[in-house]
Design goal:
The chain is an all-alpha fold. The protein has ten helices and no strands. The chain has helices at residues 5-16, 21-36, 46-55, 70-80, 85-92, 97-103, 107-113, 120-130, 141-152, 157-181. Helix 6 crosses helix 7 (107-113). Fe (ii) ion binds at residues 26, 30, 56-57, 129. Residues 23-129 form the HD domain.
Length: 189
């Protein structure tokens, strides 16, 4: 399967809508925000960005849980569905997942199994996820990070992860906003 947006939406819907309706609301809003942010990436990568937004949290689906780390579980499942390799890798590493993987003792597995891209696409995916709340509401990035910390509580590994990841997340959001205010990137010749 290519990085097809309709197929990505259908896969995410099938895995999340009924069993995790709140997560599904978040995912729908992240996909909408990725569409709005598409001007921050090359026209060639816009479908890939939006497809990754639809699928970034698919690993929370109870059916897919294996290690319990949603980025890795989701990406492994996507690879088994023959999803585009770059798309699977974007899901594996979305929103600084490598830092959470380290907290979970899965840093090596994640890094060996999926290549980590650093690009306007990874920045824009992080932007879409980290400016969208758990119910799909729009947040400033610092509000969103505070929301995550308060939802998991102090001492939780997700809270430790998000504290370590904050500078990188804030930088990715800033780069995306700067690209958007500079105007849509043009088609490479
Ligand atoms: Fe998310």
């Amino acid at each position: 399967m290519k990085a097809d947006v309709d197929a990505a939406r259908a896969l995410a819907q099938q895995q999340l809508e009924v069993v995790l309706p709140r997560r599904w609301r978040h995912v729908q809003a992240v996909a909408a925000k990725a569409e709005q942010a598409a001007g921050a990436v090359s026209p060639l990568d816009r479908e890939l960005l939006v497809a990754a937004a639809w699928l970034h949290d698919v690993g929370y689906s109870p059916e897919l849980v294996d290690t319990g780390f949603h980025s890795l579980d989701g990406a492994r499942w996507l690879r088994r569905q023959d999803v585009d390799e770059r798309l699977s890798a974007l899901v594996a590493h979305h929103s600084c997942a490598w830092l959470e993987a380290e907290e979970r003792g899965l840093g090596q597995a994640l890094g060996e199994e999926f290549e980590r891209e650093e690009s306007p696409v990874t920045d824009a995916l992080c932007y879409a996820d980290m400016t969208t709340g758990p119910d799909g509401q729009s947040f400033e990035v610092l509000e969103r990070l505070a929301e995550i910390r308060s939802r998991y509580g102090s001492g939780h590994l997700v809270t430790r992860f998000i504290t370590r990841a904050e500078p990188e997340i804030v930088a990715a959001v800033g780069r995306t906003e700067a690209r958007l205010s500079a105007g849509p990137s043009v088609q490479p010749m």
